[in-house]
Amino acid sequence: MGEETSEESKASIEKAIEAISSLISLSHSIKSFNIKWQLIRTKLEELYSGLAALSNLNSGFDPSLSILISAILISLKDTYDLATRCVNVSYSGKLLMQSDLDVMAGKFDRHTRNLSRIYSAGILSHGFAIVVSKPNGNACKDDMRFYIRDLLTRMKIGDLEMKKQALVKLNEAMEEDDRYVKIVTEISDMVSSLVGFLDSEMGIQEESAKAVFFISGFGSYRGVLIRSGVIGPLVRVLENGNGVAREASARCLMKLTENSENAWSVSAHGGVSALLKICSCSEFGGELVGASCGVLRNLVGVEEIKRYMTEEDDTVATFIKLIGSKEEIVQVNSIDLLLSMCCKDEQTREILVREGGIQELVSVLSDPNSLSSSKSKEVALRAIDNLCFGSAGCLNALMSCKFLDHLLNLLRNGEISVQESALKVTSRLCSLQEEVKRIMGDAGFMPELVKFLDAKSLDVREMASVALYCLISVPRNRKKFAQDDFNISHILQLLDHEDGSNVSSDSGNTKFLISILMSLTSCNSARRKIATSGYLKSIEKLAETEGSDAKKLVKKLSMNRFRSILSGIWHT
């Protein structure tokens, strides 16, 4: 008898599934009571998913399930009758039909809840595999939507393992096809269910944290997460979740707090303290710490939050320590965070200097320093550029830790992006007092700057030209510069408009090169080298088109040539 009962129960389930599918199809042809039928379809889809999960059940069925299936079949028969009457417009009154449809929607809702209770009570054996058939890549939106609703139903009615598997399938779908993300945000109760799972058991929490993080990657859907109350649960995951869940939570908060309006919500739920604890604890992985620094970087845009953080003991020292991390995300985000904290805050800068923050920034640039990536070096240089030139204390600390040696090495050997960042800082240094320029001249910066004068980037050429002009404004540097024949001849070649291979001749950089030559004419040896170089005719042609600076240069060189002629006559 038991075997017969099992077969009969399976047949009843399949009959119910087939009836639901038929009823959903019929409902799409109904032209009246659209909202009512849309609600009924939603309830039917949830019920369909719950029943479909039973089709793989291997064990016998409990009587309570058989009673439920019988009730579902009766409700389906009654609803099919209502659908037929709506299609044929054969009902007696609209109000009565609306009432009947509300009753049926309520019945299907109760059927779904009863099925969920049966799952939760463990009455059904879970000795089966849940096979969720995802539509192929060319599937229409309705098929994709039905699939997501199926997963949502499994999340609602299933036990912990079923919920987790449904969440895994959901994450796989969103990762493979962005269209699923849009569908998830459109389905009523979907996002709020995911947010609710953040306070669930570890495995469920982890998968739901991944899901909300994935959704947060799309700016247009972040509002849906915020309206669903996601921030509080995310903060609780930071406090109590496992490593993977915490990391997904921090990354999600980093996305959400790009909008400063959400910063207060994170603070109100205790997020600042939770993030600071993660950053100060050595047991957490680099990805989690780096993401936490990223969230805090966004939060310090709110002045009150920044003030709270700087007043906390050892906060600045904690982030300085993180600069020495082996992981790029930690280095980059901790440096950016410190930059945000110190910007326009002299007191915090003083703490940065006192706690050795400038030395840590310079250590990122040290060579060999395989622990620091090119991106880390760029961010460190940007921080130095923004922090050190507006503060005497920062600048003194910078110059006292062999910064110029590391900067020169990056100009010589760094990757292109790092070289450009180093050149920008070099240009800033060249605008400082004469003593700094003299030190840079002796250190060997001028030959390196000459190499950038014919770079492809106009910005790079201009920065190099301006920096070089500032350095040779110092008489000692001019003399040193003129001693190397290559330096002057290279600049003259760049100004030679007749050289077809010259990329700089028509670049707008000419005026800077002329200014450099004008400065060099103050040095006798440099002036003689320019005048006797063979490029004088090219300079005279420039004077016809490039304005007063070029004319002044020609005049000065001509006077020198005239003096040479007179000197020759006198000595004969």
Automatic annotation (TrEMBL):
UniProt keyword Ligase, yes or no: no
InterPro entries to which the protein is assigned, alphabetical: ARM-like (IPR011989), ARM-type_fold (IPR016024), ARM_PUB (IPR058678), Armadillo (IPR000225), DUF7032 (IPR054296)
Signal peptide, first to last residue: none
Xref: SMART domains: ARM
Domain DUF7032: from-to ranges: 15-123
UniProtKB keywords: Repeat
SUPFAM superfamilies in UniProt: ARM repeat (SSF48371)
Domain U-box residue range list: 247-453
Keyword Repeat: yes
Intervals holding ARM repeats: 270-299
Xref: Pfam families: ARM_PUB (PF25598), DUF7032 (PF23005)
Identification of the protein by name: Vacuolar protein 8-like
Species: Camelina sativa (False flax)
